[in-house]
Amino acid sequence: MELKKIKGIGPVLEKKLNNLGINNLDDLLNYYPYKYNFINIVDINKAVEDESITIKGVVVDLPRVQYIKRNLNRLSFKVMSSDILINATIFNRAFLKANLTIGKEIVLIGKYNKLKASFVASDIKFNIINNSIEPVYHLQEGITNSAIIKIMAEALKYNRAIDLVPEEYIKEYSFISKIEALNLIHKPKSMEDISIASKRLKYEELFEFMFKINCLKRINNKAKGIKRDVDISSINNFMKELPFELTKDQITAIEDIYKDLVNQSRMNRLILGDVGSGKTIVATYAIYLNYLSGYQSALMAPTEILAEQHYKSLSSLLKKFNIKVELLTGSMKKSDKNKIVDRLANGDIDLLIGTHALISNNVSFKNLALVVTDEQHRFGVGQRNTLHDKGISPDVLYLSATPIPRTYALTIYGDLDISIIKTKPKGRKEIITKVFKEDKIKDVLYKMLEELKMGHQIYVVSPLIENNEENDMKSVLELKNKLSLAFQNKVEIAILHGKLKQNEKDKIMEDYKNGIIRILISTTVIEVGIDVPNSTMMVIFNSERFGLATLHQLRGRVGRNDLQSYCYLISNMEIERLKVLEESNDGFYISEKDFQLRGGGDLFGEKQSGLIPFKIANLKDDYKLLLQTKEDSNKYIESNKYLENDYYKELIKEISFIN
Ligand code: ADP
Ligand code: MG
Question: Which fold has domain 3-172?
Fold first, then answer.
């Protein structure tokens, strides 16, 4: 059902909901709260300094609004609570002014300072029932939590929900129905409601997921691929031409690939390896072997910068083998593109490198038989469809630098064969990592200066650039100015951010690679795969904002040659968590720790960007449930019971079709 039909959703709100990935009634109902507030109103006399409390009061004076800065305003008003007159303030709620009429009863959540009789509210509520539970949703600018609560209540009235747990499992586990679970998760009356509902919704989410994984695995096992006729000595020939010796794990991965490619069944392999472990060379072997058998390959990277980088390193590596490599990017001239497209169709190109848009673009290969996709982008249904529409079902090799614990990998990547690269190339020094509080910035600057003097380059990462807001831009510019000042304008500093045009970004990267720019201030854009070996220092501001795995990825941008490299994490918070990175350079260990530490506060755990596709389940707490659903869904497929379930019948058709 369309969102517009739900009471309270107009075109403006609809657009905003779309931005949250909510496009219909079902999406909306499946948009679960990530935590809950327990409303417990207390007497203001019971307030404890610096602790948040919830009080009731009556507005006794008209509120005033002060506009302090763009993006910052303050609403102040007087409230009577338990015979105490307090001065209440709340930031960025100027829009509430009209609602705060004299005599109005309100509930305030915030901190009370008895001496000043002031109350700094973090939230103001109207019509709140004491001892109730309020769901809290991940929001987007322009949508308030109470707006979501309101429309959710309307949406629930339709009493419609798609239940994805097959009947036999609802019976087996005595689950409540989906719609009951939705009512409880969005409008709980007790902790128990939440726990009953979330268990059932988690099961559903994991069941569907594991159903897909199990199907894919089965289909892949049956899928016929190309049986290549190449001698195993190709491995030795390949290694002979390399400028370095392969590590043990690299060789094992290459052997795995050899077996896959000379076998009749189709390759569907994931190379899981820490940053800098040398996955590219392993993929290069696959491309080489594919070439020897007379087929074309494609290599897809998540960004143009990375695609270009791959193009440069691979074309020089593959020249020795006479492999013709080309790059195709969106920013190329049309005439150049056309030339490449023609040559590709003629079979005049052996390896085409580009972004993930590559296969969806209007390009057709003569005989594509291998697709390598860099950095964890699995094919979405759409992409697989595109390949299928082109009448090809190539061997696929995924490269991922997100080292997740093996047990998890086997589950969520359960449809793929996995080669793990743990050993690091010889001669690599451990990156020295240190956590600094902000007031120790001088030490950081001093170290930066030392590195610059040695001719090295530095990455500076600031999460502030992410939001793309003017205000945030200011703080990044400020950062640049401060650094310029600190280094007396003697070093070239550049900022790389999302608002720049592609050619501007490219220019900056080019200048950084060539050492013209010495300090590169950036968002996490550089997280994925950039390789500039002369960079020996990574400085990350507000590092508490990142997960350990992300920080580890960022750190992997340095330490790319035999120079000693450093990673300085600047933060005033979560020092303990950050110290895990001081202890270890092992991505697998760090991801294990990350899984252990994650969760805690948030009821359903924080959203791990991209890695885990779950809305309500989290692998740490729900691993057992995941294994259970893996087993259940497998049985479900084996028993052919899914043939009686329209949803799964369709799903399996879709999956088989695109394979
Ligand atoms: P990642 O696994 O992060 O993609 P890359 O494939 O980009 O890592 O490799 C990082 C760097 O290490 C590259 O410059 C690559 O040439 C180099 N490299 C890869 N394997 C080895 C090896 N066995 N010995 C020495 N250097 C290597
Ligand atoms: Mg890489």
Answer: OB fold (Dihydrolipoamide Acetyltransferase, E2P) (2.40.50)
